[in-house]
Amino acid sequence: MTTPRVQGRQGVDGRQGGPEGPGNISEEQFRALLEMIPAGAFVWDTGRTLYVNAAAGRLTGYPVEELLEIGPLDLVHPDSAPYLVEQQARARAGQDVPREYEFKIIRKQGDVRWVQMALDRVHGDGENRWIGTSTDITERKLAEEALRRSAERYRILYQDNPSMYFTVGPDGIVIDVNDFGASQLGYTPGDLIGRQVLDVFVDEDRETVAGQIRALLDAPGETRMWELRKVKRDGTVIWVEETARATRDAEGKQVVMIVCEDITDRRRMEEELRESEARLRAFAEAVPDLTMIMDRDGRYIEILGRLETKMTIFADPERLIGKRMHDVLPRAPADTFLAAVRKSIATGAPQYLEYSLDRPSGTEWFEASVAPFTMKGQSLVVWVARNTTERKRLERELVELREELEQKAELVAERGSAYGLSFRELTVLQLVVDGRSDKEVAAILGITRMTASKHVARILRKLRVNSRTAAGVMAVRERLIA
Questions:
Q1: Residue 445 has what pLDDT?
Q2: Is the pTM higher than 0.70?
Q3: Which of 45, 103, 213, 348 has its CA 20 to 30 A from that of 365?
Q4: Which bin fits 319, alpha (ψ -120 to 50), beta or left (φ > 0)?
Q5: CB–CB of 362/384 below 8 Å?
Q6: What whole-number distance in Å separates Cα of residue 300 and Cα of residue 323?
Q7: Half-sphere exposure for 309 (CA within 13 Å, toward CB)
Q8: pLDDT at residue 421, as a whole number
């Protein structure tokens, strides 16, 4: 485009424009036109400014008189200067250059603004001048930058996020999927877009997914979660947790946004935990011991074992959960037990106790081992208690029986000496007369069964009889026993 020659505020070259007439415009008219437009207008020749309008002053913050003293590139921000200097050199060399530019300027007040300049060369009478208009596009640039950042955030949140994102239409067709989501299933986004989202679920779960999508479409804004199974491209089945919500896209169409997390490892660990707990409970039910889990304050967290085992200590075991030992036991034993709990936690070593508790049925005796462990960052102990009351009774009876036998043996020791029977052999003979087997003799005397058998064999040999019955008859006849 060829623009008419104009005269600057101080006069461009002293010559007037051409005569007015059809197709021509006077310099005054042209200048009036430039003063009316909202864009900043400039006329330059090499290295100097010949004309600026009032809008240019408002754009740059400089009075018009000062702008006439400033070179064309003096207002350009350093970030933009190299490119414009390059284009200026190309223009001087007669090369083609762009007619529109976007660059930054520094206003007189020091603030930075973006401008868009349209520039054209003025030809005529051998002159080589430039005329341009500049518009402030800072707001547009800020909006573009905000949009770019928003798009970058979207890319980071959607495309680069290590979660699976799906956008699904009302018909269940995949509208979009991020790279991570597709790759986790062994696909590319292009493989999944346009396909039914149900295709990546196991057959048994597809109707559930379809029902959830229908429910979301019927309740816009509602968020739903579910755990189902997906099938990867290689046939591997994974468990996923999905959070979904129905919304509308930029065109107002209804879509369902789905965020998906692979929870296969979590499900596996949960299943292993359930199996472990089942094994623990089965073990606790199988053994005759009572197992209790307590914290460092002696608070009952869990009580395991057979119901009849629990009932030997607690009338209502389930009501103890959450209570402390001091809430249900006398102070003295509770103090002792709590000290063992805290010592086990402090030292990291098991503690062993033997104690008795007064129950409605009488005194009950127990042996317990207390071992520390940590669960979810909490210090706990497992307390395994065995009721030893019956064993205590048997031990007491055994001691009494031993004492009785020894007393009887002492009474006949002299009589038995005629056959060369030792004190131990007389004791064994007394048990033989009572009809005890070798196994029972061993248990009563605290010896092995083989030792008991040897004692009996020596007794038969010394009495010169060949059976236990004959030995018993002779012992009674000869008064070898009391």
A1: 87
A2: no
A3: 348
A4: alpha
A5: no
A6: 6
A7: 19
A8: 83
